[in-house]
Amino acid sequence: MHSIDLGAQANATRQSSTHQRQHTRGAHIERSPRCFYPVFMHLLSHRHSRAILNTMTRRRWIADTSTATTASLIGDQAAHLARVLRAEPGQIFDVVANGFLHRAEILTVSDREVVFALHEELEAEAALPVHLLLAVFKFDHLEWGIEKATELGAARITPVLARRTEKHLAQAAAKRVERWRRIVREASQQSRRTDVPDIDDPQPLKSALALVDSPHKLLLAETEQENSLAAALQRHSNYDGPDAEHNRALALAIGPEGGWTPEEMQLFTENGWQHVTLGPRILRAETAAIAALAICSALL
After folding, report:
1. Which candidate, 228, 274, 234, places its Cα nearest to that of 251?
2. Can you give the pTM of this predicted structure?
């Protein structure tokens, strides 16, 4: 009889099993891409999948110049489209021109100008009927707030030189207006708006209040404890008839760091502004603007 070393046999069995498992795992990892690649390509080439890909969101542009049948991007927009995106004649984009959204086809491309043929008009949502009076504060925070206000749909933004706006900011504000207008244009395209909000020149509060023609005027005030912005909007949101759009229009004022002075608060009251609150917390001005516009978007 042959003697059998059971311990050695068990050890060999374990080694074989381990090797087999490692080999199996390794083979599985190696085969996986090759195994699934044909399946992936089949799905990608399937007619339904191609249809989904063809309906993906197109890039949207706001034309610099336009006629009844064509629209053009010039300057930085044209250079970006030509050099970065490498656009070619025949490509289709969404283009806002003459106040309307169109499906548009590129006719010619250069670093200086990209010309589109305007095709059918597309459905688009209107801007939020909100005129935002925003006190000037630290420019980096202010510009972030302007960008987000644009994304949230504000129709007009008036920078206000408040009593508590820092002197050097008030003096420099006029030189920043063109930058702010570029910011809102880029934010409008990014958020797929069909319009660009108006940015007024910075001005004192009294002059800014004279620009307001909205029937509803709401002032975010730290001193207000009971009348919430949401409650005020719900009282003014349901309007029908030919003047419904104007009747839904709203002006919203947000103060600087440190708040409005008592004299400014009195000026608001004399001009028929209603005091409202966002709640018990003290918010940064840019945070208050975002929160207020989000509430307006939900309720108007």
Report:
1. 274
2. 0.72
